[in-house]
Amino acid sequence: MRRLRAMLARMDAAPVTFPFGSLTARTPDLEVLLTDGLGGFALSSLSGVPTRCYSGLVASQLPPVQRRTHLVSPLEVLRVPGPDGVRETTLHALEIAPDTFEGEGLRWLTGASLSDLLPEREQLFAGVRVRRRAFMPRGSGAVVFLYDVQSRDPVALRLGGFFVDRDMHAVHERVPDLAFHGAGREVTVQGEAQTRVQVHAPGAVLGALDPRPVPQRVHYRHDLARGEPDTESTLGTPLWDLSFPAGGGRAALVVQAVTPGVAQALVLDPWAAYADEAARRRELAVRAQVTTGVPDELVATLAVAADAYLVRRTQPQGVTVIAGYPWFADWGRDSMIALTGLTLLTGRHAEARDLLGTFLRSLRRGLTPNNFHDDGLGAGYNTVDGALWLAVALERYVAVTGDAAFAREALPQLRDLLDWHVRGTDHGIRMDPADGLLLAGEAGVQLTWMDVKIESWVVTPRHGKPIEVQGLWLAALGAESRLSAALGEEARFADILARAQASFAAFWQGSYVDTLAVDGTPDRSVRPNVAIALALPDTPTSPALVAATTAQLEAELLSSVGLHTLSPLDDRYRGNYGGAQVQRDAAYHQGTVWPWPLTAFVELLLAQGEVGRARAALRGLSGHVLEAGLGHVSEVFAGDSLRPGGCPFQAWSVAELLRAHVLVSRAEAQAAGTQSPA
């Protein structure tokens, strides 16, 4: 604790900064995410060009769901007086058709940077430099743009925006029906929802303009690639002219969703708010470095990234995890898998406890929600592994924190969860009395993490006894035994655990099988699920079998950024992840590469003392943090090209890379004979 306090006291330490040259900064495929802790977010490319229907300001009406888009992009015009009259240019840029841009913002970019993942963009026009920073104050539903203008002579900056008012998953095919009201430094944009726009410009002459919105076409390149509607109509209008004296000045544009019933922070001083947010991010980075004992840039970066996924939920109340940005809400399985990396390794133990409480309170018939519905009305419970991951996460939390009080409070709920699984609950989830293993599955329902369903087609049904579900079942039973012992109570499921462990040998049939059907027929598909099972604490195996399995996974599934979900040697393998949703979903778990199971593979390598191989397995994914969603890790990669796909910002991808990196770093320290990080 003294180390933590000492390092936190050094908050003047420089942030982790990634600079980008002008050519890289112009690449619209590099995306930046800002979040407000309520489920709202501001998404854009590093250059500022909107590339998805989710770009701009998205705010939650019922945190963290019911999210609406309010702003697509700021409108920015620079006016520079000269001997031949005023020279004028736009600092924003909008793609209006593939590779066709309106606005000259890309032309004037000199570079960009991320400081603890806060973006900064710099442009140069006619000798005038304009630096723009962006952030979202916590709990605000607002995005703030800070402008610093440097000019030898007087100069003017015109600010406004390109506005919409819609569900975040949709686009406006027609011009949105918006009304603009206000005067002075505040304008209200009224549609079905309301947007407040403010300008702050100390030292500048402020000229308020009468809003005169005109339709503006915007093309979204990432939506085109996904086979989704890719063009919409926005309303663009300038709102203020700011005149700066010789030397330049500064200004702030604040765009805030007005959400009735949601307590939102007001942005009274944008520059003080930015300083607070920068300091908060620095604290998150340092806290994670101290907690893990690994004080490097990757830990700092992933700790700041992790913060984006931890949000507060109103119904039910508590901390939850957004599974991925920009389109996922909060999912139970994802939350529990990600809990270790997002909270325990980052020193956010109170939030870990709150997160566990959110899902413990949401248990139904022994099952945790697969996902809370995006409309805020109820949840889906179609998951066999979510509740079992909850048991694993609970034990990890108690092991790290020593929180006996919470363990005693949660143990009856864990036992009730296990009771439901023993006697049988929804979707055919029940213990097989013949061997103590867990059965699951019913027609038309997807239950494991390989959970794609295309209309009535469940692509990878895996009904029966999936191998990773058995590993989780054993781990949940083992967690009950160990928590009971720690609290001085008698374990209630020890006999079932012993019987199920003895039965696990049925999965070895010359190699591990992925799933045993209800009748015992083996599915010999080579998938990463065996790594997940063998990395869990109660799965019985032998060093020889682990070595053989690791070698097979390395030969058939390992890529530079994760594990293939199906061996490329399988006739069903699909190496292209892209195109329309039906094409993507058909490939989702049939060869597409997923990053998060790579951590289980790394654990198997470390168990065999293969520290060098473990580090090598992480190099590609560690470098990926600057390739798509900047500072984060993508959801998936195409099996053949390894092109990033799915959500560019995925919770369990970030969390599990952080966990793997810390595990390997600690093993490297031990191998080097240095003191092992705590």
Question: Could you characterize the architecture of this molecule?
Answer:
The chain has 17 helices and 37 strands. The mean pLDDT is 95. The N and C termini lie close together (12 Å). The strands form 11 sheets. The protein has a 9-stranded antiparallel sheet with strand order 1-9-10-11-12-20-16-15-14. With 678 residues, it is an alpha+beta fold. The chain is elongated and about 90 Å long. Helix 1 (2-9) packs antiparallel against helix 4 (270-292), helix 5 runs antiparallel to helix 17 and helix 15 runs parallel beside helix 17. Helices cover 32% and strands 28% of the residues.
In total, the number of strands is: 37
Structural class by secondary-structure content: alpha+beta
What percentage of amino acids are in beta strands? 25-35%
Separation, N- and C-terminal Cα atoms:
12 Å
**Helix share of residues?**
25-40%
**Mass-distribution shape:** elongated
How many helix segments? 17
Write down the Rg.
26 Å
| Averaged pLDDT | 95
Biggest sheet layout: 9 strands, antiparallel
List low-pLDDT spans: none
Widest sheet, order of strands: 1-9-10-11-12-20-16-15-14
